[in-house]
Amino acid sequence: MSVSECVWGYRNGNFRTPHITCLETPPNSRSQINALIGFLIAVHITALLGIVFIYYVHRRRFRNGNFRTPHITCLETPPNSRSQINALIGFLIAVHITALLGIVFIYYVHRRRFRLVQSLSVRFQFSENLTSSRLIIALSTLQLMTFLMYGMAKVYLNSTHNPQKDDIPSYHSNMLAIYLISEYTLLLPLITMLFLMRAKQTRQSEIRSMIQVKASGAEGWANYSNQLQQQWNC
After folding, report:
1. DSSP alpha helix (H) spans, the chain
2. Per the UniProt record, which residue ranges are transmembrane (predicted)?
3. Cα separation of 69 and 73, whole Å?
4. Residue 229 falls within a domain, yes or no?
5. Is pLDDT at 15 greater than 60 in this prediction?
């Protein structure tokens, strides 16, 4: 079973009882959802085991590493481990780009299927999925840009920077770029709350605009045609 089947499984879902939350799933789609949850759990466990494996492989290298000059930050790595660190950074960037492309693909699939769905409950689920996808895409893009700056600065310090010959301002500027990861992690909850507040305001304004729209006469027909056109173009 593919991920696309899990995504499209909501399209023709029929609920036995009314539901007011998008966390509920149609009975005929629960097996696909359970399979998707199991797949995501397996991916998280595999990633965690990979991190633990990398830690134990490089623990001896870091413990016995010899630095050319004294350092006061744990972001520095010993010279005999820098090639592996550069390879790991490149691998993480490739995985992040692949995941971001996958999220964008799922977003456009939801957006295309949204106008084909007739059930009101399923349309609400697709609308919530689109909102969540926009949040994930925005955060993933910002995180990718931050990690790209971190990776370039880290590779520069590992490959070409010489603390004994290079100037101090160049070193400090690259160290500031490396600390962007910590700053982004600190600002992530604030960014998420601002996005959710904006999404809530947008939803409320759309509801108010729909309530105030006239539904009779020539103006009502014009409003209906406009909404129908927007639905087919979304």
Report:
1. 3-8, 30-63, 82-114, 120-159, 168-178, 180-211, 217-233
2. 35-57, 85-109, 135-156, 176-196
3. 12
4. no
5. no
